[in-house]
Amino acid sequence: MTKFADYGQLFGQSLEDKLVGVRGEVVTENSKKNPADFALWFKRVGKFAQHAMHWESPWGDGFPGWHIECSAMSMKYLGEQIDIHTGGEDHLSIHHPNEIAQSEAATGKRPFVKYWFHSLFLAVDGKKMSKSLGNVYKVADVVEKGFSPMALRYYYLSAHYRKQMNFSWEGMEGVSNSYKKLKKEFLALRLEGGQDKNIFGPSADESLTGRGKFFRDEFVNAVEDDMNMSAAIAVARAVLKDEKLKDFEKRRLVENFDRVFLYAKKLKTRATKCPTFLME
């Protein structure tokens, strides 16, 4: 890590700022050149001798380290530099800085990621979500209680990613009712065709004026304000309630907003089937 001068820049610390083995019971690794060094490849020896997943490589029979897996997958599918990388707040200090270090060292291209998006952990009834507390819920649990998976998504969009969200079944009930009302208002709009034409950016298919332009700009401003999705949803609700916009204009705006927070397409169908992998 000492060869990568910008290590820790993501979370505002340098290697010199990190204390190693400050607690007496912590055993530090003496074989590393730097305590922050991490493994790119694990050989199938010692405690890893019976590891289920392993491959032959120039470095011996083994398997990739966790950090390198993420760099390899993103480069294969998205290229050597990517626009947005998301993750939880727990990845801010180790995993993502490691991704940056190994990716930029391998390609020589900077930055590896233009924008990092770190969300805070979800709380449940004011407490940390954990198996020991019995408050870890799956999408299947939400559906079993009669709620739509899209209502859950709506619930998540109602809070800013930099603020800790508190999940509760009472809150889920309220959000579900709000989502149903929004869905009903959307489905009541006349379908005239052509509403899915792009209204964003220089390549827009439609040039908006008047109130349509006003709401489009308000939506863009909300999203560009550090992904303020709750404000963006408020704009969508305002569009549906506006008395001066025609049904065609409302559908065009909301269906375009769908390209960002992905719920309007689900509003168009009266039945929503959740993918199996999300239920497990």
From TrEMBL:
TM region positions: none
Keyword set includes rRNA-binding: no
Keyword Nucleotide-binding in annotation: yes
Gene Ontology CC entries for this record: cytosol
SUPFAM superfamilies on file: Nucleotidylyl transferase (SSF52374)
Ranges where the tRNA synthetases class I catalytic domain occurs: 3-174
GO molecular function, one term: cysteine-tRNA ligase activity
Origin superkingdom: Bacteria
Assembly notes: Monomer.
UniProt name for this protein: Cysteinyl-tRNA synthetase
Species per Swiss-Prot/TrEMBL record: Candidatus Collierbacteria bacterium GW2011_GWA2_44_99
